[in-house]
Amino acid sequence: MENEVTLNAKTIHWEREAIEKLLLADLRERRAARRWRIVRSLLWMVLFGVLIWVLFADALPTNAPATPHTAMVAIKGEIADEAEASAEFVLPALRSAMEDKGAQALVLLINSPGGSPVQAGLITDEIHRLRALHKKPVYAVVEETAASAAYYIASSADKIYVDKASIVGSIGVLINGFGFVDTLDKLGVERRLLTAGENKGFLDPFSPQSEAHKQHAQAMLGQIHRQFIDVVKKGRGERLKETPEMFSGLFWTGEQAVQLGLADEFGSLDSVARDVVKADKLVDYSNKKNLAERFAKRFGAAMGEGAVKALQVAPSVR
User: Fold this and answer.
1) Which 8-state DSSP code applies to residue 70?
2) 157: helix, coil or strand?
3) DSSP states of the chain as a string?
4) How far apart are the C-alpha atoms of 269 and 280, rounded to whole Å?
C-alpha cells in the first residue's frame, strides 16, 4: 500500500512538472511571438518612413541661402512634355531661382539633343519675362550638347559658354515617321480607313502620302523653322556671323560655334559662377520629377483615358 502511495505521488509530481514545463514553454513562445510582432511592426514603420522619404524628398520645400550665390537650373535630356526638361518642371525652377534675393544671376546648365519647339518656346518666353522683371543676367553653359530645341533655349541667354568640344546648333525642324503601304501589299493586308473630313488621315503611316499633304506638312515645318531662326537672330544679334549653312540643321563643335557667333566664350558652370557672376556658391533650383508624381499622373491618365491611345504625330525641333 505504501509503495502504491509513493508511486502515485511520483506520478502526480511528474505530471505537475510536465504541465509546468509546457506552460513555461507556451509562455516563452507567446513572449517571443509578441517581441517579434513588435520588431516586425517597427521594421514596417521604418520601411514605410524610408519609402515616403524616397518618394517625396524632391517635393519637400528647400530654403535657398539668402547670401549671394549663383542660381542654376539644369536642362538635361529630351525637351518634351512630362520630361524633366519640360516647361512643367523648368518654369517653376526658373521662377524660384530668379525670385531669390540672394541669386546674383541664373545659369542654365544645358545638355540636351533637343525636342519640342512648343516646350522650348514656353521656357524661352518665361526666361525673357523673368529677366525683365528681376533685372538679373541669364547665362547658358553647354556641357556635351545644346542642339535644336536646347539651342533655342540657350539663345535667350545673355551669353552662351561652351566647351571647345561641345555640340552646338542643329537649327532646323523635322517631322519623322514611317510608311508601310508597300509592306501591307506584300503581306496581302488591306488597309481600311474611314474618315469624316478628307484630310483626317493626314500622315497616316498605312496610307499613301499625297503631294498636297506633303506640301502642307512642309509649309508647317517652314513656319516653325522661321520662328526658330527669328528667336536665334533676336537672341544673338550682331554677334551672329551668318553663313548659308547656319540655319540648315547642321551642328558644330563649341570651338566652331564661338567663331560663328553661336556661342560667346569657353567656360564651365564653375568658371562662370566664379569669374563672371562673381559668386562661387552654386545653388541648384532644378525641379526634378519624383516617383510619387510620376505614379499619380500615370494612374490618373490611365483612369481618364483608358488603355488605348491614338497615334499622334507632332513636329520636333532636332
Assistant:
1) E
2) coil
3) -HHHHHHHHHHHHHHHHHHHHHHHHHHHHHHHHHHHHHHHHHHHHHHHHHHHHHHHGGGS-----SSSEEEEEEEES-B-TTSTTSHHHHHHHHHHHHH-TTEEEEEEEEEE--B-HHHHHHHHHHHHHHHHHHT--EEEEEEEEEETHHHHHHTTSSEEEE-TT-EEE----B------HHHHHHHTPPP----SSTTTTTT-TTSPPPHHHHHHHHHHHHHHHHHHHHHHHHHHGGG----TTTTTT-EEEHHHHHHHTSS-EE--HHHIIIIII----EEE---PPPHHHHHHHHHHHHHHH-S--------BB-
4) 10
Question: Per-residue pLDDT for the chain (318 aa), expressed as one digit of tens each?
Answer: 555 555 555 566 666 776 767 767 777 777 777 777 787 777 777 777 766 665 554 444 444 456 899 999 999 999 999 899 999 999 999 999 999 999 999 999 999 999 999 999 999 999 999 999 999 999 999 999 999 999 999 999 999 999 999 999 999 888 777 766 677 667 777 777 777 887 777 777 777 777 888 888 889 888 999 999 999 999 999 999 999 999 999 999 999 999 999 999 999 999 999 999 999 999 999 986 544 444 454 445 444 444 434 334 344 444
Residue 31, amino acid: R
Contact 113, 78 (CB under 8 A): yes
* Burial class of residue 35, CB neighbours in 10 A (0-12, 13-18, 19+): exposed
Three-class SS state of 200: coil
Decide if 142 contacts 107 (C-beta within 8 A). Answer: no
